[in-house]
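Reminder to self: tokens first, then the designed residues, so the page reads top to bottom the way the pipeline ran.
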């Protein structure tokens, strides 16, 4: 994770003809609002594997790395607060 962004637009991408099944796709534009203060990637999260421990790091590990990494996910309020510690406000 390198930055915090605000989504400025999102548009549905049309399905390609003749291919079934297809995962719905979205084109997203975002504006960077803060840079990360420290690293938070796969190596920092991979030790958090107990899916029932309730830690925000475990939720991130599950959502970012258990399946494909290019996706949009919802996160809990606890993860939002946890991630808030990783960014420098006002750095563009």
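Designed residues (92 positions):
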């Amino acid at each position: 994770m390198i930055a915090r962004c605000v989504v400025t637009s999102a548009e549905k991408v049309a399905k390609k003809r003749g291919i079934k099944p297809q995962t719905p796709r979205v084109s997203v534009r975002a504006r960077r609002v803060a840079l990360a203060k420290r690293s938070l990637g796969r190596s920092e999260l991979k030790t958090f594997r107990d899916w029932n421990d309730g830690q925000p790091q475990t939720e991130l590990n599950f959502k970012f790395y258990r399946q494909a990494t290019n996706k949009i996910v919802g996160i809990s309020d606890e993860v939002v607060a946890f991630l808030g510690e990783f960014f420098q406000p006002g750095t563009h």
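The longest helix spans residues 56-65.
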